[in-house]
Design goal:
By secondary structure, the chain is an alpha+beta fold. The chain folds into 2 domains: 64 residues, no CATH class; 93 residues, CBS-domain. The protein is built from 9 helices and 4 strands, in the order αααααβαββααβα. It has a 4-stranded mixed sheet. It is globular, with a radius of gyration of 18 Å. The two termini are 28 Å apart.
Amino acid sequence: MATDPNDDAMNDLLRALRTRVPVDAAELLAQESPERIVAALEALPPGLAHRIARELPENLRPAVALEEDATTPGQVSELMDSARGVVKSGTSVQQAIEWLREAESVSDITYLYVVDDTENLLGLVVMRDLLLAQLSQTVNDIMIRKPFSFAPTTPIADAIKAAVRRHYPVFA
């Protein structure tokens, strides 16, 4: 069941669901009709939809969401969500801050991802560094170059081992 991109109420609901932790998103979603619950979950990234569905009361959980969630993901791509906070190389700090002020779901943005014209990741900007930088600097001046990342085809077990080896927190 596809959502209508012109359905402002559904778009507002989806935006609200994306900005909440799963338990709070499920509480909000539980106020909707069963049909809207299914439509909203289908419109969200699969990983987020499954986490929210698990928090819904049993009588409101769509069977499809539970069936799909029964399998363990095999590779990183199965857990990926679309990147938020993507800016082009050469963006000034001032432009990046202005962009953040206008961004939807800004609470989901923890880093700015700096990409080239072909969308290749060049680096990332930590919010603290962005706030402390001179407005005339570019994101390239303050970014962490060649950040640690995984290919989408990386097996989950390998990704966990690599993250633990580098002492990065592992989020479930």
